[in-house]
Amino acid sequence: LGEGPLSGRRIVVTSGPTHEPIDPVRYIANRSSGAQGAALAHALAALGAHVVFVTGPAAVPPPEGVEVRRVETAREMLAAVEAALPADAAVFTAAVADWRVEGAAQEKIKKVPGGDLPQLTFRENPDILAHVAALGPQRPRLVVGFAAETQDVVANATAKRDRKGCDWIVANDVSPGTGIMGGPENAVTLVTEDGAESWPRMPKAEVAERLAARIAETLA
Ligand code: C5P
Known about the structure:
Layout: E1 10-15, E2 19-23, E3 26-29, H1 35-46, E4 50-55, E5 67-70, H2 74-84, E6 89-92, E7 99-101, E8 122-124, H3 128-133, E9 142-149, H4 153-164, E10 168-173, E11 185-186, E12 188-192, E13 195-198, E14 202-203, H5 204-219
Helix pairs in contact: 1-5
């Protein structure tokens, strides 16, 4: 680690889920193992990048050789990403919870058998990717988002790229039956300003290596 085409480059990678508390013992979250994010951070570091790895509570441990910033909620993730800037590139692999629970309880909510059920009110979380993509001078030169789709992958990813204002979208088909969600392999389509490129199904580590190589080419 240290030497390579990304030597001297600083790259922020978000990974894992976020947890949004309901009370001190309960939360809502998206499903995310953090496997693709950890693999990508490892691949970028292997090419010499200084990686700031901003991770929610993931199942997969962070790779060696990266600077780890642990967060729990989307708002903490946003703050950690902002604190990590400026950077040459930022890659958003995290599965951020779209909503948080308004007025999370400070004490454990007591279960009253047969009694009133708790009512949750949600608030929208910040969109970290869209926020960073819209920054002025602090905007990384390359901003990459991920998109988990179950249909019309290219059309949806292209629309997402426009909506989020990022440079690339890495889209994957997570339809039931693909075994991709939580599995060892991924099949991605890379959407850039030049169009969409579908890669064959391959191990997540290889997707990470290919993406890291593309990022290195682009930042060169
Ligand atoms: O809108 P959607 O969740 O499908 O977008 C996915 C992309 O946006 C991912 O790159 C994800 O990390 C990022 N994202 C984010 N903050 C959010 C929601 C999504 O950074 N609140």
